[in-house]
Amino acid sequence: MSQDVNSDLSRRGVLLGMGAGAAALALMPSVAHATREEANDAFAKLTGGAKPQAGKVTLKLPEIAENGNTVPFTVVVDNPMTEANYVKAIHVMAEGNPAPGVVSYFLQPTGKAEVYGRMRLAKTQDVRAVAVLSDGSAWEGKKEVKVTIGGCGG
Amino acid sequence: MPTPKVKFNETAAKGEILEIKTMIDHDMESGQRKDKDGKLIPRKIVNKFICTLNGKELFHAEMHGAVSANPATNFFITATESGTMEFKWFDDDGSVYAISRQLTVN
Question: Which Pfam families does the entry link to (chain B) (predicted)?
Answer without folding.
Answer: SoxZ
